[in-house]
Amino acid sequence: MVLWGLITQPFFCPSADMTFRNTSLVFLFAIILCGLGHYYFGFTLWWVFLPIILYKAAIIYGSSVIQSNFYIEAHCKGATKEKVVAITFDDGPDPGFTLKIIQVLNHFDVKATFFVIGKNIRGNEAIIKQIDSEGHILGNHTFSHSFFIDFKGRKAFREELTSTMAAVYKLTGRQMKFFRPPYGVTTPHLANASKDLDYEVIGWNIRSMDTTGDSEEIITNRIKEQMKPGSIILFHDTSEKTVNVLKQTLNFAKENGFKIVSTERLLGLKAYEI
Ligand SMILES: [Zn+2]
Question: In terms of pTM, does the model score above 0.85?
Answer without folding.
Answer: yes
